Structures
1.
Amino acid sequence: MQNFKLKHSIRQMFLAVAGFVVGISLLESGGLANWAGRMEPGVLRSVAVPVAATLNKVLLPLRVGAIREGALDELARIGWTDDAARLARRNPTATRAARVSAAARTAPAPPGPAPALIAAATAPVVLSVPRITNLSPLAPVAQGKPRVVGLTGDSMMAVGLSATLMRLAADDHNLRIVRAFRSGTGLARPDVFNWMDEYPAMVGVDKPDIVIVAIGANDGQGFIVDGKVQLFGTEEWRKTYQSRVAGYLAMVESGGAHVVWVGLPPMRLPTYNARIAVINRIVYTVVSHDPRATWLSSASFVADESGEFREFAALANGRTMRLRAEDGIHFSDDGAGLMSSVLVKWLDPPLEAANTRGPAKPASSAQANPVAIALQANPVGATLSRRGGQNTNQFVKASPALHDLSLADTANDQRKLEEAKSSLRTAAADPLSRRSLP
Amino acid sequence: MLFPTVEYGLFFLCVLAIAWSLYRLPRAHKAFLLLASYAFYGFWNWTYLPLLIGISLFAGLVAQRIQRTSSARARKTWLIAGVTVCLAALAYFKYTGFLLTSLLAVWGNFAPEPHIPVASPLLPLGVSFFVFHAISLLADCHRGKVKEPVKLGDALLYVAFFPQLIAGPILRASRFLPQLAAPPPPAPPRSSPLSLLIFGPLYPILCAARYMPRLSVRPYLKSMRVNRAFLLIIGGLFKKVVISNMLATRLVEPVFSVPHAYGRWDTLLAIYGYAAQIYCDFSGYTDIAIGCALLLGYRFPRNFNAPYKSASPQEFWRRWHISLSTWLRDYLYFPLGGSRRGSLRTCVNLMITMLLGGLWHGAAWTFVAWGGLHGLYLITHRLWNRMDWPPLVEARSSTAWLWTSRILLFHAVCVGWVFFRASSFEIAFDVFRRLGAGGAATLATGPVCLVLFLGLAGQYLPQRWRNGFEVQLGRWPALARGAALAVALALIEFLGPSGVAPFIYFQF
């Protein structure tokens, strides 16, 4: 008897599977429709979307979706979920606080960036992205008023970079970190994860003075706008993505925060790398139009001399270290640490260093900004910068400036690369012309 | 393709339907499973398919050669050659960067490091697992444990069979190949209107290919424990999607990212949390694999057996990742001499086995330290067990001793997990240091504590409960069982986070 109960014929198995298929269709038709809608444009999607949509439409009268939403809200109420947007929607206190915070963030916003970003959203995309970027010195942190630093982005922030930044900032009472990043997200697919909703909810009542952004690794894909497929790399795709980047940037800096946008590093797989280069060019176009945003080239920390991917590197201390994770995409802790140590020292400059610079410049156009920023990106050469009166370039050797990876413009890039090398040789001859590092 | 995704669900339903439709044609059935396995693997990155095919083809050919050779010396030569090639492939893909940087670091202690450009190839998914499968095939053929002549197709399917391809369990060739050689199981279901409705679109294709068997029912199939398969899949998904994900994102990751931002209670909870997370993540994944294989008519060995109930390091390794620990025992520890060559040699063998086991998990010194720590535990326990002072022997049989041992062992294992999880020794020691720091438990929310409790205490649920539930489930109509499975799956999806955290064991 027990044997009979434990062991079944294949017929029974198929019946059970049939029951499962029917049951899951009833319960998850909405989820299936969402899943189909989130697929990248392609043959599979063109089959899955109508099937799932029809199924969902037929089962809509059952109101499973509404019941599910109500139950999810209940879960959010008891603290089961960490979905920031849902929590913010469901928690009236938090929502109120977020509104107040949003109002506070919006109030002091200087009038300058909005038109700049409007222009940036439609500006022609640059042909190359500079590798060297200056972070102009910040004013020292005021006593008892820590500088609030927001970290946002996808796994490029979540893996390596956020951890090293938080580790370095943990013992620094002048810095307070706000976490607002999430792996597996991006700006290309607001239907999957909408940063315009999620970021304010994640930041909540905090008001970052500076936001460090690292995002875009998942954005090398096509999407659908108003029912029309926009394939990656096409002109219409570029326009949509550029406007999304501009919108995201405007939102992040809406409370007067200054943004440091960490450019994506070169990737190991050539096809993926080519897509990332396109994304970098679009993002740089937007960021370079915004006086309150600074582009920080991660390639200058982790790429090789010609701007290509490298996994390991012999650093200035003589030791060979892994700069990139084994997947060839993310930063390793050591690679991220190169950037993080620069960023943390920049965020909280030592007083003696500030003194040697002289008093902080009075803010002019960026009066509302907590920092004075000047974007001095030089597209072809290493720029001059010194911090604290001494050159402390401990980690990364000076390297050529360009690593534009546009496949369509390789000849032009080669020429620029040569110019960059020439520029570097000149820069290297001058001990003062080293890139700014701690 | 990950198990807890819609893509895999649809893939598996299709494979299930077609595979059973082809059951009476063993060659077509196996060929289809092989193609499905390659599609499963290629879905992630097809560029590494040649490596998978190459390794399995090579192992199959060498295994055939070993079986055909009568000279013991020649057989051994073939075995060594085969294992060397397999290990060389693993070493190249997994350890190139690690070995080079380690060598350079050693060099750097005596002289300035030479500027050698170091690079490592992209790690193919599941390479550690399919290389170990290939070695198992070679070794079992050499030992004569595979009685029947190895067919090349079977060897390819054994190495690439998709439920175990990415994260095990590590199958033994001697136990899996006979399943492939067995006569086909009984017939698939009668062509009822329901099955025609569900699988109808496939029928014309199958009939056209003359592969469509006459459908009839024979109500037996000893290997088909449908309810068990369902329970394994649902239990595995719950552990993976709900428990592991929540612990990872809301407890473990924050603390291990920035240890010195948290006090002792958060740190302690995070260490316990990681013990529960890695168990739920890995055992959940292999439970799904075992359940899927069972539905396809194949039996996989059990991979976890409530490991945190162990009272000694030996017992722990008999309960944790059983397929790997027995693999290491049979193909590494025993060939080294096992425990037959005196105490000192036994200790050395144990340490070598565990150090290499640690290295197998990842190309980093923290994994080696984890393995070394477990080697130390095994050696210490072996020496401790030799003490035969009568009161001690008597005390060892008491319940209090058992529970004390369990608690001690669990904490010793947790110490190892800190090295396993930390990205560097610096972080690991930071975590330990924070155990002495003050501060309130900021991460101990109700849901987190609940899933932590479930992850750890769930192992103490009596086995008979699950068996009883399986029997009870058998009394339900088949359709109702399927519907219950759907409800359970929807609940898991509902309770799980919106994103799925990366699967820990992929990197191995």
2.
Amino acid sequence: MKPEPQEGVTPDAIAATWVIVPAYRESAVIQPVVTALRRLGWKVVVVDDGSPDATSAAARRGGAEVVRLPINLGQGAALRTGFAYALAQPGTGFVVTFDADGQHDPEAVAALVAPLVSGAADVVLGSRFLRPEAPGEMPMRRRWLLRTATWVSRTTTGLPLTDTHNGMRAFTTAAIRRMQLSQDRMAHASEIQAEIARHGLRCVERPVRVHYTSYSLAKGQRSMDAISILWDLLLTPRRSRS
Amino acid sequence: MIGSQIALLALLVVFAVYIVRLRSTAMDRLTYLGLALVGVVLILNPEWTNIIAKWLGIGRGADLMFYFFIVFCLFHFATTAATLRRMQRDLATLAQQVALDDASAKSEGQRGG
């Protein structure tokens, strides 16, 4: 597949990058997401989190490598599996995480990888709040939930971030190797920030646009899930550092 | 502070120390066995619970048993939760390894023809 030229990234950087797409029951939407990423030249690994549907087959049709977990473990565990896969491939320098439900813009991956390639950052996080937003673009309840989550994360980690629960992130392999991640479910977003702060990784944010569709809203986090995330963070002990 | 409060607090401290410091599968089994023996003795001598309860300042033997039951439940919850957490973590590691092995076996199969 001949990649289209993109601003800010060389073909070498694209060849050194794996885009990890954790997916659970996304057979209806994942193929075009993968195809769009592949068309831009990115290597894609879909981690199928034990979906009962045809998510794996759809991802393969789109041109992705597929790692299929035999049982459903949660998004945090799926991402860890994707990281392990990417680190095991020869020549990997950068890793990007990308949502499977089509809410992210494949064109934005290049902007996330660019600060890693130039050496300006170890971690790049996507943010929905860094760009002027069309009125009504984000549902009101979603906005307040995200603002609250961001405030909690800022207070606990001290990182000056504007959006702490965005699925689009980019890491150097060195950064991935230093982070100790143990949260299986959604609390991994907060955990990633805690690890960035603990190791003093250089972290920048880049604006990303999120396309809210009725599909992505139905699959995304509900307000009550915040309770589960807090529960996981408070009651799950950190993995021993032996 | 009455005798029963001191005794119960001391018991909780002993359990906390036990769970944090002394735990092992063998010690857990000995603890369960010891508690079972105490149960047998008290069934054979029901009036002893009243004597101990009076001595501790608790009204009746039945209340004493209820307090012991609560502490025993806490002990049981703690050991069960620790086991479940360990199993969940091992299961995640195992599932991840199976998934990665499958993926690399498939890609090698493709390369080999």
